Amino acid sequence: MFKPRSWFAPLLSTVMGLGAAILTAIPGQAAENITVRWAGTDITISVNDLNNFAQGRPVGSDLRALLTLVSPEVQQSIREALTSPVPISPQSIQQIVNRGDTFSIFLTRLSNVIRAEPAVSLTDPAIATAIITAAQSPQGLSFLSAIQSFPAETLLFDLNVFLTYLQQLNDQLLATEAIVNRIQQRSQPADANLQQRYQSPGPNAVQVQTLNWQDPQRNRPVPTDVYLPSGTTQNLPLVVISHGLGESRQTFAYLARHLASHGYAVAVPEHVTTSAQSFENILVGISSPPGPQALLDIPTDIRFVLDQLAATRTIAARVQTQKAAVIGHSYGGYGAIAVAGAPLSPVNARQQCEPLDRFRNNLSTLLQCIAINLPQPSYSLSDPRIVAAVAADGLSSDVFGPASLAQVTVPTLIWGGSRDVVTPLKPEAVAAFQQLGSRQKWLALAVNGTHFTVLPPNSQQPQGFQINLPPELIGPSQAAGNRLFQGLTLAFLDQTLRGQPASLLPTTGTTTIATPELQVLLTQQAP
User: Fold this and answer.
1) What is the pLDDT of residue 16?
2) Other beta carbons less than 10 A from residue 310's beta carbon
């Protein structure tokens, strides 16, 4: 029997919390029973019994039998997921449901596991009303409160399908462990002095200028922070940093300051429809979630910033605006690969995503699959000024595919974490690394790193919107991840933009760069 890894329990809790959405429909009679289908047998559990379990009270024999299938740790995660309210306002829920795209894909996939008998159509407009009704209840929108708005007497939970999904997820985890083991076996430690050199601040003080640019062609603001080393040094190499969904141009201020202290000009634009402020507006119901247009806007923002930098006399006088490197995280990692030469491919997305109810053990596909709604078969969003790229935890498998990634020929560094449950290592980072057309490419594998390892800890971020994640999803140490990421990125840029001799970057084999809390395996060889 499959036994989930201990760090996987928070993900289970999160998915169950989101799954409350599909369990709300036409307000009316509360569901009384949940039928669990397993091994050819239907086991019916009363909702009252489920509530007793959630409250830590004794339960009946049928539910006790089912609970023996999972560990006490996972039982506790399920108990918390049953009652934990989803931290989204009723107004926001209505925005999300009405928008469709990612949410509808999620519901379609989830319906393979949880559905009503008799069936309720996911397109029924009353679902949105019922979700809001549950969210307005005193306990907020949760699995149990959602049941109170369910239109049928019985919910069907297909445990056979659910356990199949878990087994596939476990197989992916085992495949990731095998990749890590293979790379570790051939790895040699990097020179400690070199690591310290690249991770330490540079000799320059840093000046920051905020430029509130507006793209008139798209009627879109692109506010940008520009970090420059103080003084009159000219011919500065240029770097653009692209943030991810729910992040901001302040998220990577630590990296921008580090690079600027070493003599780089760094521009950090805000992608307004995928930023932290936009995400906060979604959660309170002010705005809608980003649709497929975001896939076009992110790389277009980067290209626009390059144009504006070249047109700003005081910056162009000091900066090499006709060639630049790009660094991106998550959604921004997608943007970095796009401007580096990979065409966005809705055709590949359709091939990978349809039918939409097919299980995908990759949360990022919920964002990538919205590309199927773009009208053109392909979009070339590259910029010839981009001469090097870093993609950390980037989206790639559906939005690009092998044919698109083969068109990236500039030096590229792909960063991925072995415990990334948002953009899993094998289908996103490893596959992208293998499919890139560049002759100079490196894979940086953060052992036990997650999707959030390169982000600064909340305590070090500017005040504003923050997401408090469980420690298992954050990983061993964000502070260590920041040090390793900024040091490795600087070494990559020194070699590719400045033409300095190879240092931390191996020409053959694998190098390990590490802190006591975290290690990164850096290789040019296919895992």
Assistant:
1) 42
2) 15
CA dihedral 177, 182, 183, 189 (to 10 degrees): 110
- Domain-located, residue 118: yes
Q: How far apart are CA 142 and CA 11, in angstroms?
A: 16
**Amino acid of residue 436:** L
Q: Is 180 domain-assigned? A: no
**pLDDT at residue number 166:** 74
- Looking at the structure, tell me whether residues 456 and 356 fall in a common domain: yes
- Order of strands across the sheet that contains 412-417: 187-189, 510-514, 519-523, 441-447, 412-417, 386-392, 319-329, 236-242, 265-269, 220-229, 206-215
Closest CA to 105 of 395, 416, 469, 349: 349
If asked whether residues 112 and 225 sit together in one domain, one would say no
At 95 the pLDDT is 53
| Mean pLDDT split into 10-residue runs, the chain, 527 residues | 40 42 40 74 81 86 81 80 66 52 64 63 51 64 65 69 76 87 89 91 96 96 97 92 92 97 97 82 61 95 98 95 97 97 96 79 87 95 98 96 97 96 93 96 95 83 56 85 96 94 82 93 87
Number of domains in the chain: 2
DSSP string, 30-53: PP-EEEEEETTEEEEEEHHHHHHH
Q: What pLDDT does 217 receive? A: 96
pLDDT of residue 117: 61
Rounded Cα–Cα distance for residues 142 and 122 (Å) = 18
- Residues paired with residue 241 on neighbouring β-strands, in sequence order: 327
Specify the DSSP element, H or E, that contains 241. Answer: strand 236-242
Sign of CA dihedral 395, 401, 404, 409: positive
Q: Tokens 């971020």 identify what position?
A: 461
Residue 105 falls inside a structural domain: yes
Helix (H, G, I), strand (E, B) or coil at 393: coil
- What is the rounded end-to-end Cα distance, in angstroms, of the chain? 29
Q: How many whole angstroms separate alpha carbon 170 and alpha carbon 164? A: 10
Does residue 267 belong to any structural domain of this protein? yes
- On whether both 115 and 233 belong to a single domain, the answer is no
The per-residue pLDDT for 132 is 60
127 and 208 part of one domain: no
**What confidence tens digit (pLDDT) does each residue in 360-392 have?**
778 888 889 999 999 999 999 999 999 999 999
What is the DSSP secondary structure assignment for residue 407, as one 8-state letter? Answer: T
DSSP 117: E
**Bridge partners of residue 207, in order along the sequence:** 228
Q: Which of 85, 123, 118 is nearest to 107 (CA)?
A: 123
Based on the fold, state whether residues 125 and 158 are members of the same structural domain. yes
> Coil, helix or strand for 176?
helix
Residue pair 473/421 in contact by the 8 Å Cβ criterion: yes
pTM: 0.81
Q: At what angle do helices 478-496 and 253-261 cross, to 10 degrees?
A: 40
Report the pLDDT value the prediction gives residue 111, as an integer from 0 to 100.
66
